[in-house]
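ok trying again, last paste got cut off:
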Amino acid sequence: MAPPQKGKQGTKGAKQIVEENVSTLNYYRNMAIGANALSLIILVFYNSYISIFLYLFSCVIYIGAYQFMTYMAKAKYSDSGQLLDSGVDLNMQGGIGEHVKDIIILTAGCQLLASLVSNYFWLLWLLAPIRGFWLVWKNILSPYFFQEAPLQSEADEKKQRKLERKLRRQH
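nice, full thing came through this time. structure:
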């Protein structure tokens, strides 16, 4: 095992990003297929309209999330086969790929728990909009609402003094 590196983390090469994206896509595809397969087997024996609807809804979420990740990670090659663009790194910390992977994990968890234990576990899906609101609040709304007032520039201070002198002369 290599010793831990100090300082700045090394950058990934384009080929490494492509390879890691392929393995990430395969992993999350297999997770979705496994959760769907087990849920479908249980759904055959215990079917209700709400279970069928939520199963189909989870399939739509899997397909949408997987297609979005595939679109983001699509590598571009030249006519000669040389890699031009590796696509977005799906494993980047804090990137959108991380949030899409979280949606797949949450959906698989909800689906398996609801299939094996109770339909009330579908309510865990409510964690997704709560997390989305939290991210929007933390990154967009909170800095906007709680930003400090802009400092007055020298030109503004001069204008203010000039205005005060005018007011004094009028009185």
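cool. The helical segments are 14-45, 49-72, 96-116, 127-145, 154-170. The CA atoms of residues 93 and 99 lie 10 Å apart.
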